[in-house]
Write a structure and sequence with these properties.
The structure holds two protein chains of two kinds.
Chain A (H helix, E strand, L loop, with lengths): L2 H13 L4 H14 L4 H9 L4 H14 L4 H14 L49 H19 L3 H14 L4 H13 L3 H13 L5 H13 L3 H12 L6 H13 L3 H14 L4 H13 L3 H12 L5 H11 L8 H5 L1 H22 L8 H22 L7 H4 L34 H22 L1 H8 L9
Helix pairs in contact in A: 1-2, 2-3, 3-4, 4-5, 6-7, 7-8, 8-9, 9-10, 10-11, 10-12, 11-13, 12-13, 12-14, 13-14, 14-15, 15-16, 18-19, 18-21, 19-21
Chain B lengths: L1 H17 L5 E5 L10 H23 L1 E4 L2 E4 L1 H11 L3 H6 L7 H4 L7 H22 L1 H21 L13 H14 L4 E5 L1 H18 L10 E4 H22 L8 H10 L9 H8 L5
The chains are: A mainly alpha, B mainly alpha.
């Protein structure tokens, strides 16, 4: 058996059968025949758990091949491990994303995948279409890469995936495989570069962003992570699912403040994302701010969400008292609308009083209708719309003082929407009372005006009409 | 005691027969948004019932002894209906209580089944519309819809109607129309004999093939509100066309008032809560 065959069998014993002892024997035999096989030294280093011994074997590999980038990197890492370890990251290990393997893998000495594996891009943005010939090429490369991977030749597989990425920078499967394996092999910068290239090219594949964020967080690279979050939040076309997933990612890492800030930023840019609003509402609810939570759910409801999202919103809103927005509170037209409804009642009454002849209504009844409109408006202002802009300010209204949490439950009882905190001035109680009384008097007067014929008839106490 | 039992049995028999083929909505199965207590709906039901029991029923079902002869009090009943019912002829002539009849007619019912049917529909559909409007605004809407149904029934036919109309059905049609507008996807629980019977084989098939635990028996059958209401409109619409064509009321029922009341439901947007109105205008049901 020649040295190459022994080497191959040794690698197979380690990688596939996990038989370190046999692998060691075979590699030692191979190295006796060919001591210049740097890869065999690196694999041999994997068979021992003693750091000093491992470093020694890596040194041997470097002596055999001083240009071996893999050996150099591994030596640097081993040396770094021998220094005092940096303080651990405060957050627990996150749930692995769809792309990445578990964060820590033992150093696997593979020679090929270095930064030189990354090829220059053939197109700068993802918007440039891929030609049919390129599509065919991608399919061919992916098939070949799969064969390599199944055969355990990860290095060649990575090279092929990277070739695919040179054609289509955000090819999801190629990117997942290449970055995942590079990460597993601890070539973090290469993996990150692949991700960054896809993001810079304007990818709209959600998993790319998620994976990149995961990489940044695992590397404890706060600046890159923040930059990525900003990218997701400010995507030109809102990807609500991605926004929610990123928020979920941080929630899974027990970082609700990051998730909260991220959602708020995303909603600043794209305010009509119902699922993101619901997620932010959930966060507010968990933090005990039920008023703000209900506002966010209401906002979500007003985005016109459909399907399951709408059902979820309705379900959540079911446990809250609806809230009025300042737009609704301050609107004069919404108040006038109710007054018009009341005036409509008086028009009908006047019409019947005029013996169903609209032309015979006369100035008195029309005056009654106008008075009813005014009276209705005063009653509506006094009862359900005391915060109209600018009326409330003109009539001496003041912004209600902020609620003292010690006063009781945060939300008012059903039907007490006006007691919710607001930034709009509210009419003073005395003015409201006065307007209400004036409105009722005017409505009574309007009734007398539009029904003057009927009331006169009834006042005469004439006997009722009977057909016999 | 026996008399009470007999009356109850009679009531249940009539109810069973009247709901055997056609569903009768009895309750709204949806979640109310504001969870307001339906004071206005309850008040209207109580007023209508009180007026019938205390003022109409004694004349309708009572008798008077005149010597040895027992006289029914039917004449008094007819007098009340003519005086306080909505009558186009008296309105145009400015007689009776004139325009006030448009109010009084809304609270009068011809007999027990008229009252019962109307109040059941009012309860089934009014509760949720009241929740969307608030009690006071709902009352205004109810009166407006009732008046519009009265006026509409006059305007939709060329012949002057000499018969008085009574009943809350015009206003309740408005409430039903408003319900359909505001909650098009809602479901209502209905008393429906045929549906209850058909449910049994349906449940058996589901249990057999889908393996789910579908209840074999329920007193009520949930149906989409739009289906029930379209059925109601269709039942009013065809006789209305016939009424318009022939200028005669069909089966003594003012179908035109039902139809006009249904059309009057559009005015509900003057009365719904302002936040719900904006939600609605943004393309959401409430």
């Amino acid at each position: 058996m020649d040295a190459q065959e022994l080497y191959r069998q040794g690698v197979t014993a380690i990688r596939e059968q996990n038989d370190l002892a046999r692998g060691r024997d075979l590699l030692v035999q191979a190295l006796k025949l060919d001591p210049h096989n740097d890869m065999a030294w690196l694999w041999l280093a994997r068979t021992t758990s003693d750091p000093a011994r491992r470093l020694e074997l890596v040194e041997r590999a470097l002596r055999a091949n001083p240009a071996s980038e893999a050996a150099r990197k591994l030596r640097a890492e081993l040396l770094a491990e021998q220094r005092p370890a940096p303080p651990p990251v405060a957050t627990p290990e996150p749930t692995p994303s769809a792309v990445l393997p578990p964060a820590w893998t033992p150093p696997t000495p593979v020679a090929q995948p270095t930064s030189s594996v990354i090829r220059p891009l053939q197109r700068k943005t993802v918007d440039e279409p891929v030609t049919p010939a390129e599509k065919e090429r991608i399919a061919h490369l992916m098939d070949r890469a799969e064969i390599y991977r199944e055969a355990g030749d990860i290095e060649d597989a990575i090279a092929l995936w990277v070739e695919v990425l040179a054609i289509r920078v955000d090819h999801e499967q190629a990117l997942r495989n290449a970055a995942g394996h590079l990460w597993k092999l601890r070539y973090w910068h290469d993996a990150q570069e692949l991700m960054q290239r896809a993001i810079d090219a304007g990818t709209r594949v959600p998993t790319v962003y998620l994976t990149a964020i995961d990489m940044a967080e695992r590397q404890n690279d706060g600046i890159w992570a923040r930059e990525l979050r900003e990218r997701v939040a400010t995507l030109p076309v809102a990807d609500e699912q991605l926004v929610v997933k990123v928020a979920d990612y941080y929630l899974a890492r027990h970082q609700p403040s990051v998730a909260h800030g991220f959602l708020e930023r995303a909603l600043e840019v794209h305010p009509h994302m119902p699922a993101a609003l619901v997620k932010l509402g959930d966060l507010r609810q968990e933090s005990g701010d039920r008023v703000e939570a209900s506002r966010l759910y209401e906002r979500a409801a007003r985005t016109g969400a459909r399907g399951e999202t709408r059902k979820e919103i309705d379900k959540k809103l079911g446990s809250y008292v609806p809230v009025l927005t300042d737009r609704e509170r301050g609107s004069v037209w919404l108040a006038v609308r109710e007054a018009v409804g009341i005036a409509g009642l008086y028009v009908l009454l006047g019409w019947q009083d005029a013996r169903l002849d609209l032309l015979a209504l006369g100035p008195r009844r029309w005056l009654g209708v106008l008075v009813s409109l005014l009276g209705g408006y005063l009653v509506v202002t006094a009862t359900s719309s005391p915060q109209q802009r600018p009326l409330a300010g003109w009539l001496g209204g003041a912004v209600p003082p902020p609620r003292n949490p010690a006063d009781g439950p945060a939300l008012p009882a059903p039907g007490r929407a006006l007691e919710e905190p607001t930034a709009l001035p509210m009419l003073p109680s005395s003015v409201r009372y006065g307007l209400g009384v004036a409105g009722v008097v005017l409505l009574g007067l309007a009734g007398a005006l539009v029904l003057y014929y009927t009331l006169g008839w009834v006042g005469d106490n004439r006997p009722p009409y009977l057909p016999w | 005691m026996c008399l009470l039992a007999a009356i109850l049995a009679y009531f249940l028999l009539i109810l069973f027969l009247s709901t055997l083929l056609f569903p009768m909505p009895v309750n709204d199965s949806g979640v109310v948004r504001y969870r307001t207590i339906p004071w206005a709906t309850l008040l209207l039901i109580m007023i209508n019932t009180a007026i019938f029991v205390l003022w109409i029923a004694p004349d309708l079902y009572g008798q008077q002894e005149q010597g040895i002869i027992i006289q029914p009090l039917f004449e008094d009943y007819v007098g009340k209906v003519n005086t306080y019912g909505f009558n186009e002829q008296t309105l145009r002539q400015g007689e009776g209580i004139a325009a006030l009849a448009t109010f009084t007619s809304l609270f009068m019912h011809a007999d027990f089944w008229h009252l019962f049917g109307n109040m059941i529909y009012l309860w089934a559909f009014g509760r949720r519309v009241e929740d969307a409007c608030g009690s006071s605004r709902f009352l205004l809407f109810y009166l407006l819809a009732g008046m519009m149904s009265n006026v509409g029934s006059v305007l939709l036919t060329s012949k002057t109607d000499t018969l008085p109309s009574i009943g809350a059905s015009g206003a309740i049609s408005g409430v039903m129309g408003a319900y359909l507008l505001l909650f098009p996807g809602a479901w209502v629980n209905c008393l429906w004999g045929l549906g209850t019977i058909l449910r049994i084989p349906y449940a058996a098939i589901r249990k057999l093939f889908a393996g789910d635990e579908y209840k074999f028996w329920r007193w009520t059958v949930p149906l989409p509100a739009w289906l029930v209401l379209i059925w109601f409109v269709a039942r009013s619409f065809l006789p209305s066309l016939e009424t318009i064509r022939s200028d005669e009321e069909i089966q003594g029922i003012n179908h035109l008032a039902h139809l006009a009341g249904f059309l009057a439901s559009l005015t509900v947007f003057f009365f719904v809560r302002k936040d719900l109105l904006l939600r609605y205008l943004h393309g959401r049901s409430l």
